[in-house]
Amino acid sequence: MQHDTHATYLPGTCIGPWHGYTHAVAVVIALALVVIDQLVKVWAVTNLTLGEQGITVVPGFLYLSYVQNTGAAFGMLQGVDLRIGALHLDGTFLLGLLSLAVSVTLATHLLRRGRGHDAWTRAALTLILAGAAGNMIDRLRLGYVVDYVSIDTGSFRFAVFNLADACISVGAVLLIAATLFVAPRHEARAAASRGARLPATDEIASSEAVETSQLGATDTSAGTLENVELRSDPATDDRS
Predict the structure, then answer these.
(1) Model pLDDT for residues 45-63, shown as the tens digit of each residue
(2) What pTM was estimated for this model as a whole?
């Protein structure tokens, strides 16, 4: 007896356009984003002048400008230092260690437990991992983060940022949305799938039990016939 398993929803699997987006693929995508971020930063340092408005992308709105950021994303927490007695720890170095811890934790989580997440949550963690790793490399290697995207309308000027900052921000928003709207449905579908597989298992067990009882009945019938034939042989010899 064949049972259809294609309609069963398996936790951690991707459907439709997300098919194939596994936890391992998520880590590979994160690495690719880090490489792109680092290459763009190298280009910005090489082709833009520090502290000046460089290339106009969208007039009156978007520019490429080279800035050295010693703080967190979007220029926050600049100048933060930690002093413990005679020990002085630079804030940029501390942020680098924090980024390293976040990167290792997220990468390990994606590889070990990413299969249990829905695709949207994996995408969010992928972006956050890429952003944390991209800025971590700058902080530990250079002592600052290379920012290059500037939004300036004249009346409003946003903090200069980079691709890594954008990945962290978009990933955080996506993670919140996935937690609120996608994860509950993902868990409900997984629970329904587990419930749907139990009757199928019981059906298989019942089918096997029926087949076993049928075989037993067949063996019993065959044994009865043999006994009848054995008992009928002496009578036949006496008549002859």
Answers:
(1) 999 999 888 899 999 899 9
(2) 0.65
